[in-house]
Amino acid sequence: MPGGHGSMNDLTRPSRVVELLRQFDLSPSKGLGQNFLVDRNVLEKIVALAEIESSDTCIEVGPGLGTLTRELAARAKRVVAIEKDKKLSPVLAHTLALCPNVDLCFADALQVNWFEVLALYTPPFKVVANLPYYVTTPLVMAFLESPLYFERLVILVQKEVAERMLATPLKGDYGALSVAVQYHCEVSVGAKIAATAFFPPPKVASSVVVLQRRADPAAFYGLNSQEIFFKVVRAAFGQRRKTLRNALLGGTEYSLSVVEKALARSLMPDNVRGETLDVKAFVALANIVAELI
Ligand code: SAM
Q1: Which end of the chain is flanked by fewer CB atoms within 10 Å, N or C?
Q2: Residue ranges of the domains in the chain?
């Protein structure tokens, strides 16, 4: 079987998870989003979507009991697993005992400097993780904005977060995250997962999202300045109830003349709101601003 562990030791069996928790005197922490994967089909689906090659370095955030970690270790060159909960150290030492290519690091993934953590590892870097809800957005943004190239991110997230990543203009959940993800990556939902795939089951449904990075997003979209683009996007969604004109005046240092000329040259009406612009429209606007300043 994948991972080289016998079926008695299959960590996706709910009874095995309960036994491990009892053996190591653990109870799942709600605050840390500890909903452990107990569905082998889902586990295999995630691993297949990750398209891991033997030269890859996999980064896993939140190994938990090591269920996904073991599958990654069986396929990748190395696995770097970052876990916030130090109490999981003994159980992980036990479940990962046969995985010499896993490096465990007990730290808060939101605080780590990926450049330092991964200094000794070789790309390609692939992120594969079953993420707690509260870390998803800041963590994905950190991976996308890092100077390191995280080639592919296959992440299990709350269904609503997946919808936000894929949202298009004028949908309620369209926002700065949608634009950033769609700018940097080709994004798709790889699978929809019921709450019963986890122990304990969360209150919400989940999705596996696949983010395949574009090698050169600026070239792909014909963007001149990434800095201006993200400044415009942040301002547009920072004050999304305002018109784009007022959001840009309030959220950037651009002068009234620059903002008005840019909107006029983009052939946008005076009262247009930022949430009506798709990535290409933001690119066009940012390129005009770049010419005007
Ligand atoms: N990978 C395991 C699985 O699929 O069964 C566990 C997934 S569980 C949803 C999330 C894991 O992330 C937990 O082990 C939790 O302790 C860990 N975690 C929560 N916040 C974290 C953070 N800020 N940094 C690193 N790990 C975190």
Answers
A1: N
A2: 14-215, 221-292
Q: What is the pLDDT of residues 154-209, one digit of tens each?
A: 999 999 999 999 999 988 799 999 999 999 999 999 999 999 999 999 999 999 99
Backbone angles phi, psi at 65, to 5 degrees: -95, 0
Architecture of domain 221-292: Orthogonal Bundle (1.10)
- Residue 132 CB–ligand 1 contact under 6 Å: yes
Contact between 96 and 102 (Cβ < 8 Å): yes
Ligand 1 neighbour 66 (Cβ under 6 A): no
Residue 128 C-alpha to ligand 1 middle, in angstroms? 12
The answer to pTM > 0.85 is yes
CATH number of the structural domain 14-215: 3.40.50.150
Average pLDDT, the chain: 95
The pLDDT value recorded for residue 4 is 46
